[in-house]
Amino acid sequence: MPGRVAAAAAAAGREVFIVGLEGFADRGVIAPWPHVFLRMGAVRCIFGALRQHRCQDLVLIGPVRRPSFLDLRPDADGAKMLARIGRSAFAGDDGLLSAVIRVLSEEGFRVLGMHEILNEALGPRGLLSRAGPDANAMADINRGIAVARALGAVDVGQGCVVRAGVVIAVEAVEGTDAMLARCGALLDAMGMAKPAGVLVKAVKPGQDRRADLPTIGPETIRHAAEAGLAGIAYDAGGTILAEREACVTRADELGLFLLGFEPETTEQGS
Fold first, then answer.
1. What is the mean pLDDT of residues 137-162?
2. Which pTM value belongs to this model?
3. pLDDT higher for 209 or 194?
4. Residue 61's closest CA among 101, 104, 5, 109?
5. CA–CA dist 239, 62 (Å, integer)
């Protein structure tokens, strides 16, 4: 995704410079572009590199695990940044990212959402796959939306798995893939037939959409199939659908449905 955003920015006439966080960024993806690798806590170096390359607009891309304070090893500017973030450093992901965006704005940068550069990144409304949800799956989607919204309201996670109205798993700090990895065993333990059940991904209420939007990629679909689910429903216009064609192809190959819903109406095709 960083490579796709960089290519789209360059195609639009923007100069591109990438700061890759050590331990998180993929060197092969970043290599074609002017870049530097820096550790997360080296805030002075990060700001210095951005200003040296005349960066004004920033796009935050990719998952970052929360480090411990010892692993972070903030420099003097990093310690000051943590102080400015304050209690948000101990909040949920959206609270923390919103505080980081605020500090970046105070430093003179403008933070853009990835979808503002890569317009086609957001998953569209409607059914994308050959398979579609039946009435039972639609009921599970409705239930899943309510659960995901409740999780998001307290800044916990962005997704859940529902089968026959039963919440099988909810996403927390472990992420979607880890949540799906334990769903198959849970469905087996509960004696539930497979494939059945849905993964629902939704934007948190009030979420700052410039960072950490729900994301679905081909591997998400593979993990959902391995868990024995019937399909995936996502928040249309608010979910990053990485490699859309590959996602649809993978869903069709595995027989899963892939549906973009709107929060106001969850009836298929409405």
1. 92
2. 0.79
3. 209
4. 5
5. 14
